[in-house]
């Protein structure tokens, strides 16, 4: 398949891969990438220090993912190169690997071992096996295989056994004996050349020295890279011990040491996991504020880190380091718990504030009485207090600030309505008191007092704010009280007119001799002239006519006219009919008030 690199040239691709690799945690030291293309094959060479590649499987997976994201497909081969030595790592008969010189050019044929037999190339028949470093798990070699296989030249070399019909059975037996003998000799030579089989066991000393250096690293406040270096050394030490065969006299000693180192390695890996987890936890707190779910995740990360350290602290030589880290992480966990609780409380208080605000708004919309407005007011106050409990730098603090302004404005409006309702109720109660006093005065015909009280009633009602519930409820009553006030004023005027009429009648009737007597009968004033007055008027008029005394006659006429006008005015002002009777009880004249 042809390589598809799209518009990215090889130099750009090298830079992309280097940046991607060196940002990953497994990049203990910077790595360099070389990309070469020849024919239909793209080769990628990763240059690194031999002791600095603990995670090749993850490295290859990262490169494949990066290429796939950029649409680069086809036949791709990846190789590890020992930095500074220009050597490709290739396999040989043992697990330690074999190197060949590499001049920086890509030639697939140059890196495949040439031989004349299938057996010599059997380890290349399936693909390219990279060097198996001493610090890797000997039982897991799956990481050694790249997904893109370097095709062995053996695919083009069919090596079928030629048929030899002329060979005798004896020759075949001789060949079999020869091969068996060669195998036995080779097996003995292999067993004797294994580590620690003959002479002193330098392998154990080398393994112990590496393990010692890995322990000394944790005597100080080591960085993650230093601890990873310790893990690499310890894995190398373990691989050295695992290379000692069972037939070695040192095998039992190596096995005991190996168990100790494997336990130490497990604890070192726990420490690495703890430090890496702590790093992730710290990174997640860089952009505050965070949701409660985020703080819970961070809380779990610190708990995991502490748990790993507590398990690792079982090894005495790591105890000091792990205890210091545990104390540090527990402090961070405690702070995380505080932030989590703080954020939870903030979110809960904001939720409660919204619930109170919604209830207050509903009550405000339907409030009528003072009690209704007080309930709305109390709920707005509760909502505002919940917002006051929300600290700054929480996920809801900005929303709380905006809600605080809105809730405060609505609280002020509710309080204003409540005060208006209180004023309306107070004015109404005063009006009711004066209504009772006005009615009592009316019962006593004390119309002046009644009018004064009705006047107070109307004034109180007019002061009640029109947007209040009390005002709406009083509309029928206001009309009733206004009518009563008008009627009281009319009756007061009638009473005053009646009093004046009595005064005028007194002036007309009570003179010497007495002119008349009067009484009020229903809606009529009955006035009866006295006999003496009638006799005097008659005699005076006769005498004046006989004597020709026009002056007396004129005065008499003026007197009679004055009495008539007075009675007319009394009828008009009182609205009552005035009937004038002679001494015998016969109606002489009746004055009827004019209708307007």
Explain how this protein is built.
The protein is α+β, with helices and mostly antiparallel strands. The radius of gyration is 61 Å and the shape is rod-shaped. The longest helix has 51 residues, at 316-366. The strands form two sheets. The protein has a five-stranded mixed β-sheet. It is built from 14 helices and nine strands. It starts with 9 loop residues before the first helix and ends in a 5-residue tail after the last strand.
Structural class: alpha+beta
Overall pLDDT confidence: 77
Choose one word for the global shape. Answer: rod-shaped
The percentage of residues in β strands lies in: 5-15%
Helix content: 55-70%
Radius of gyration: 61 Å
Order of helices and strands: HEEHEEEHHHHHHHHHHEEHHEE
What spatial order of strands do you see in the largest sheet?
A: 1-2-3-4-5
Report on the biggest sheet: 5 strands, mixed
pLDDT < 50 runs, ≥5 residues: 90-168, 185-193
Q: Measure the end-to-end span.
A: 122 Å
User: What is the tally of beta strands?
Assistant: 9
Count the DSSP helices: 14
């Amino acid at each position: 398949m042809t390589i598809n690199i799209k518009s990215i040239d090889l130099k750009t691709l090298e830079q992309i891969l280097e940046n991607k690799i060196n940002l990953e945690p497994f990049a203990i030291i910077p790595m360099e990438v070389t990309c070469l293309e020849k024919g239909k094959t793209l080769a990628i060479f990763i240059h690194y220090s031999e002791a600095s590649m603990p995670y090749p499987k993850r490295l290859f997976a990262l490169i494949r993912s990066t290429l796939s994201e950029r649409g680069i497909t086809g036949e791709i081969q990846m190789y590890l190169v020992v930095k500074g030595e220009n050597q490709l790592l290739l396999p040989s008969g043992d697990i330690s690997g074999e190197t060949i010189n590499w001049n920086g050019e890509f030639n697939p044929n140059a890196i495949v071992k040439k031989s004349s037999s299938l057996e010599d190339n059997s380890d290349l028949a399936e693909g390219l096996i990279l060097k198996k470093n001493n610090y890797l798990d000997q039982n897991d070699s799956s990481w050694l295989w790249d997904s893109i296989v370097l095709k062995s030249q053996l695919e083009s070399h069919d090596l079928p056994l030629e048929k030899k019909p002329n060979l005798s059975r004896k020759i075949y037996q001789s060949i079999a004996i020869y091969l068996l003998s060669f195998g036995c000799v080779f097996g003995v030579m292999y067993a004797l050349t294994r580590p620690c089989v003959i002479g002193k066991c330098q392998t154990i000393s080398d393994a112990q020295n590496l393990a010692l250096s890995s322990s000394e690293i944790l005597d100080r406040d080591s960085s993650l890279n230093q601890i990873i270096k310790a893990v690499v050394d310890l894995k190398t030490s373990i691989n050295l011990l695992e290379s000692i065969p069972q037939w070695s006299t040192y095998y039992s000693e190596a096995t005991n040491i190996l168990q100790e180192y494997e336990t130490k390695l497990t604890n070192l890996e726990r420490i690495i996991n703890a430090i890496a987890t702590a790093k992730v936890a710290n990174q997640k707190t860089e952009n505050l504020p965070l949701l409660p779910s985020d703080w819970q995740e961070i809380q779990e990360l610190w708990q995991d880190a502490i748990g790993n350290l507590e398990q690792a602290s079982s090894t005495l030589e790591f105890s000091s380091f792990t205890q210091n880290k545990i104390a540090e992480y527990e402090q961070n966990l405690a702070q995380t718990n505080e932030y989590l609780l703080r954020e939870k409380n903030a979110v809960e208080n904001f939720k409660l504030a919204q619930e109170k605000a919604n209830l207050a708004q509903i009550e405000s919309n339907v409030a009528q009485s003072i009690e209704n407005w007080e309930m709305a007011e109390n709920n707005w106050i509760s909502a505002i207090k919940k917002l006051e409990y929300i600290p700054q730098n929480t996920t809801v603090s900005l929303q709380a600030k905006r809600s605080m302004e809105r809730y405060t404005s609505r609280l002020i409006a509710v309080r204003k309505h409540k005060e208006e309702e209180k004023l309306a109720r107070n004015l109404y109660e005063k009006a009711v008191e004066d209504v009772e006093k006005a009615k009592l005065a009316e019962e006593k015909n004390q119309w002046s007092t009644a009018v004064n009280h009705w006047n107070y009633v109307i004034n109180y009602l007019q002061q009640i704010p029109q947007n209040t519930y009390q005002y709406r409820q009083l509309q029928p009553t206001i009309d009733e009280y206004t009518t009563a006030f008008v009627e009281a004023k009319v009756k007061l005027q009638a009473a005053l007119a009646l009093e004046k009429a009595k005064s005028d009648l007194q002036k007309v009737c009570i003179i010497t001799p007495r002119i008349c007597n009067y009484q009020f009968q229903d809606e009529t004033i009955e006035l009866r002239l006295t006999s003496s007055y009638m006799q005097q008027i008659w005699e005076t008029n006769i005498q004046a006519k006989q004597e020709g005394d026009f002056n007396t006659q004129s005065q008499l006429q003026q007197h009679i006219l004055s009495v008539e006008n007075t009675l007319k005015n009394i009828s008009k002002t009182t609205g009552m009919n005035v009937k004038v009777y002679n001494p015998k009880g016969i109606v002489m004249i009746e004055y009827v008030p004019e209708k307007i």
